[in-house]
Structure to design on (350 residues):
């Protein structure tokens, strides 16, 4: 399931990165599907590539065998057409989700070195190449400074590639990964000449500073929950508290709920509490969903969605986001969902 979702994601990205697409009608796609592995018809090679991408997007992993046959037919028919490099880029995406990292890297290098590859395709290949290195950066296999220099070199060479903002995001997140150096690195990036990097770094720097302050003293927060209960963190001293930023419309948030409820039932009597912060705008739906899913803890709600006052105050930029507060009221763990039960038990034992 995860690999199928990932394939849809990368192929969708490929569609966005390629030349502006005129999406084929559902009937046309159905006709092409009925034709089996035949090469789709198109006004030119670039149009055929677009249709191959769309079919792969619609079918997901089940469409890889068809894609492999279609690409072979395409290369026979359009052996010298520059559009073949866009199809090579789709090959890269398929290799990525198939766990063939070396094959993907080799294809990217081939595209970047090609004399007749369109400049935008080369730029996309360069962007994918750098995105593929992000995991090695986080693992310490590639120095962050070297990675940053490569990204800046890419931005200078390919300033108009749509994926550049994603590269900027990766660089900023990597720069914030080490708490000891995050503030210094982000301050430098906030003054970067590339606006995408500077903008994201400035926003991330704000979040880092907020979290630094939260981790330095007991949390002072009180409000009236959506069900009328009064919540005051000063009165929760001596307990471990999970602050869960979520929303009923957030699929990943709802996917976490059964596990969170299970942990709550197991550890509540030992001193574990949960406080929800809902980014919903529909009060009645929030109350209904919380009841149906046994989310019996208090929920802060102001009906402002992403503009929720607490989310804005604490720099929450994505959900689900889970924070753990220790018995002294100090924020100890940010954005914890994996191994949540273990983290709670550790704090309860302190």
């Amino acid at each position: 399931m995860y690999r199928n979702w990932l394939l849809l994601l990368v192929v969708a990205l490929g569609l966005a990165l390629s030349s502006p697409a005129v999406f084929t009608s559902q009937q046309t796609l159905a006709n092409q599907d009925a034709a089996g592995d035949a090469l789709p018809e198109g006004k030119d090679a670039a149009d055929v590539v677009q249709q191959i991408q769309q079919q792969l997007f619609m079918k997901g992993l089940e469409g890889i065998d068809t894609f492999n046959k279609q690409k072979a037919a395409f290369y026979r028919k359009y052996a010298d057409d520059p559009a073949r490099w866009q199809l090579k880029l789709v090959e890269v995406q398929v290799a990525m989700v198939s766990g063939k990292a070396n094959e993907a890297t080799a294809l990217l290098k081939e595209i970047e070195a090609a004399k007749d590859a369109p400049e935008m395709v080369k730029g996309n290949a360069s962007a994918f190449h750098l995105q593929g290195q992000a995991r090695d950066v986080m693992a310490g296999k590639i120095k962050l400074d070297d990675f940053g220099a490569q990204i800046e070199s890419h931005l200078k060479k390919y300033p108009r590639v749509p994926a550049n903002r994603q590269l900027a995001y990766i660089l900023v997140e990597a720069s914030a990964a080490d708490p000891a150096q995050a503030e210094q690195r982000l301050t430098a990036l906030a003054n970067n000449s590339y606006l995408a990097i500077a903008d994201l770094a400035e926003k991330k720097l704000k979040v880092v500073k907020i979290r630094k302050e939260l981790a330095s003293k007991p949390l002072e927060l009180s409000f009236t929950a959506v069900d009328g209960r009064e919540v005051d963190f000063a009165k929760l001293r001596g307990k471990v508290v999970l602050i869960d930023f979520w929303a009923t419309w957030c699929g990943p948030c709802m996917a976490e709920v059964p596990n969170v409820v299970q942990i709550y039932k197991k550890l509540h009597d030992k001193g574990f509490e949960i406080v929800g912060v809902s980014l919903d705008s529909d009060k009645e739906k929030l109350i209904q969903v919380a009841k149906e899913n046994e989310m019996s803890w208090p929920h802060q709600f102001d009906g402002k969605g992403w503009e929720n006052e607490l989310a804005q105050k604490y720099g929450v930029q994505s959900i689900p986001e889970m924070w753990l507060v220790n018995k002294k009221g100090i924020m100890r763990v940010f954005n914890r969902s994996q191994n949540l039960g273990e983290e709670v038990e550790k704090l309860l034992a302190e």
Q: What stands out?
A: Confidence is low (pLDDT under 50) at residues 1-36. The two ends are 39 Å apart (CA to CA). The domain at 222-349 is CATH 3.40.30.10 (Glutaredoxin). The first strand starts at residue 222 and ends at 224.
